[in-house]
Amino acid sequence: MRHNFGAGPCILPQEVFKQASRAILDFKDGLSILEISHRSPEFEGVMAEANKLVKELLNVPSGYSVLFLQGGASLQFAMVPMNLLPEGKTAAYLETGVWANKAIKEVKFFGKAEVVASSKEANFSFIPKDFAIPADAAYFHYTSNNTIYGTELFEVPKTTVPVVCDMSSDIMSRVIDVSQFDLIYAGAQKNIGPAGLTIVIVKDEILGQSGRAIPSMLDYASYKDNDSMYNTPPVFSIYTAMLNLNWLKSKGGVAEIEKENKAKADALYKEIDRNPLFKGTCAVEDRSRMNICFVMENPELEKPFAKFADDNGFEGLKGHRSVGGFRASMYNALPITSVHALIDLMQEFEEKQNKN
Amino acid sequence: MRHNFGAGPCILPQEVFKQASRAILDFKDGLSILEISHRSPEFEGVMAEANKLVKELLNVPSGYSVLFLQGGASLQFAMVPMNLLPEGKTAAYLETGVWANKAIKEVKFFGKAEVVASSKEANFSFIPKDFAIPADAAYFHYTSNNTIYGTELFEVPKTTVPVVCDMSSDIMSRVIDVSQFDLIYAGAQKNIGPAGLTIVIVKDEILGQSGRAIPSMLDYASYKDNDSMYNTPPVFSIYTAMLNLNWLKSKGGVAEIEKENKAKADALYKEIDRNPLFKGTCAVEDRSRMNICFVMENPELEKPFAKFADDNGFEGLKGHRSVGGFRASMYNALPITSVHALIDLMQEFEEKQNKN
Q1: For chain A: N or C, fewer Cβ within 10 A?
Q2: Which residues form the Aminotransferase class V domain (chains A, B) (predicted)?
Q3: A2–B197: do the CB atoms touch at under 8 Å?
């Protein structure tokens, strides 16, 4: 039995793997999902269903479009200012980690980014709370979940300017109110589907306002106007995302998975706080439900615990080098049984230490 | 028995489908290829092998880099001038079809495109031959195979300026001399692998010369400097491309597949020229080996022949709306038996007509 706590690309439901595997051999009439035209009625059906599922699961209001792109969140770091930042204007950014920082860096090609607050000095171990967003900013950008540092923003900061959010690592993990956002983007490879797909949810009225001439493939309008088929889309990633979103729907949707995600996170944090060998790395009130970072009170025990986890079939628990220690990524598809197995492992390790 | 003559995403070898399907269930130690980290040694091995295979199969000389990107050829239409066209300079383009035309349109965001020749007036039914490429052009761009119109450029036009080629639909189908090019790009979904991957082969010394500040994900240097892992790459598409390139290698490589592609194309063109019901749409000397376009002498027979093909398990034979009639796309993975089956079908249809 393997337990995949990897940070992404990450675990998807086993039944999604089975369905995707079958579709590679026979999607329709003996043809593989890899050899069908994206212009075929069959794939147009897949695209339409994937779109509908995103809208349904996140309760996307009218006046918003769901777009399927490529290039990951990293391409969005540039596309957001390219599409939303008029020449000479400033955008406001909250700096909560490496990905926020990378997003900030890409703004310079289009204008100015003002960092309204940062927890960089504290190695991004908390989410800054009291900051002012300038009323004349073209938009305010933040990262809702910080995969590397294990912090998460559950409340949308209050502002009168358009809100843009990188939700790559917590989209579909909890209920959100899309109407509070003007643009949401997410690389697919956590809770949506395989790598190679990016989802954008955009309020239609904010498009076409920057006054910039934008190359077709970098213009959100090209995707909106062509049902995300301006050119050949990433067919297999979209198909598998559709399977995965259907799985989420069958589980009861985002509200139900949120309960499960809360239960999973609560259980593991409880053990981290109880077990004298381990400690969390973040401010308690900002703890992420998706990526749970922890270190050992005695750093010399890190290697032995890592080996113990490895020997017992645990994958992807190594912390990012900028935090060290361990990171348990617990996306939607990670079963709670894997979390319990990890807790058991931590307790067994504690008992072993006590015997020494 | 199905025969998939689709223009792309298109047929891949059946054994590649089988291997890809298996890897979705179990790539390594019970983990799916969709749930492994792109930073794992296993995937780094896949990436390195895919890179090596491209170099080996195309005999890429030293001083060139092979890059794996997303966004298709359409994103390259913008990335090429963004990376290679200095402010105020002009690039030379050969207009041989819709894709060349789209590439030309994206230049305007960065500078000027000079169309050195066009066959637009003749519905792109031939490749312009006598044209001059200005010696002060920043580069010369052409499309080697025109999927929609069924024409192909087998000789690289002579010029002293850097040569950029969109080889999306004939890369890996015939031997090329990479040293004649400064940049080659190709959407993967014909002869390389599944949709969602783009390959770029670039002469290192032409990078960083445009004087432009380029966003990270749009800068070829980011891919070159990070082994195409500046961010999460399209893992599954790269893995399947690796399988497919390995298949090509096992078949004897590009020189061998070129012989087979020639034999396939020769056989079908021979039948088109012989069969009084059919005729080709392009100049004979410019006929593509990848996409064979033909119409019926009597347009009233198009529907009956389309139905006859459909009833007999032939997929994707409908011509593009801008040419009409039929298009048989015959990429590397289409077996010659499918070509013979199509020829038989055309002859049976002829016999049926003679009986009427």
Answers
A1: C
A2: 4-340
A3: no
What's the rounded mean pLDDT across residues B22-39? 96
pLDDT digits (tens, 9 = 90+) for A209-232: 999 999 999 999 999 999 999 999
Q: Are A329 and A290 in contact (CB under 8 A)?
A: yes
CA distance A296 to chain B (A): 24
In this predicted model, what pLDDT tens digit does every residue of B121-165 receive, in sequence order? 999 999 999 999 999 999 999 999 999 999 999 999 999 999 999
Catalytically annotated residue among B89, B105, B136, B190: B190
Provide the pLDDT for residue B356.
78
Residue that has been written with the tokens 């039929």 in this structure: B326
Options 3.40.640.10, 3.10.310.30, 3.90.660.10, 2.60.40.2550; CATH for B14-250 is 3.40.640.10
- Is the predicted pLDDT of residue B1 greater than 80, yes or no? no
Residue B291: beta bridge partners? Answer: B329
Determine whether B190 is an active site residue. yes
Residue with tokens 């990848």: B290
A247 is catalytic: no
- How do the domains of chain B map onto residue ranges? 3-9+253-355, 14-250
Q: What is the pLDDT of residue B2?
A: 87
B108–A216 C-beta distance less than 8 A: no
pLDDT tens digits, one per residue of A337-350: 999 999 999 999 99
Equal fold, A3-9+253-355 vs A14-250: no
The percentage of residues in chain B with a pLDDT greater than 70, rounded to a whole number, is: 100
Contacts 24+ apart (CB under 8 A), A183-186: A183/A80, A183/A84, A183/A139, A185/A73, A185/A76, A185/A80, A186/A73
Interface pTM, i.e. ipTM: 0.97
* A74 HSE (CA, 13 A, CB side): 20
Q: Would you tell me which residues 72-111 of chain A have a C-beta closer than 8 angstroms to some C-beta of chain B? A: 72-75, 77-78, 82, 102, 105-106, 108-109
- Work out whether strand A90-95 and strand A112-118 pair parallel, antiparallel, or are unpaired: parallel
Sequence-ordered list of residues with C-beta below 8 angstroms from that of A344, at least 6 positions apart, any chain: none
- Of chain B residues 197-256, which have a CB less than 8 A from chain A? 197, 213-218, 230-237, 240
CATH class as words, domain B3-9+253-355: alpha beta
Establish whether B90 is an annotated binding residue. no
Tens digits of per-residue pLDDT, A83-131? 999 999 999 999 999 999 999 999 999 999 999 999 999 999 999 999 9
Q: Is position B138 annotated in a ligand binding site?
A: no
Contact B35 A20 (CB under 8 A): no
User: In angstroms, how far is the first alpha carbon of chain B from the final one?
Assistant: 28
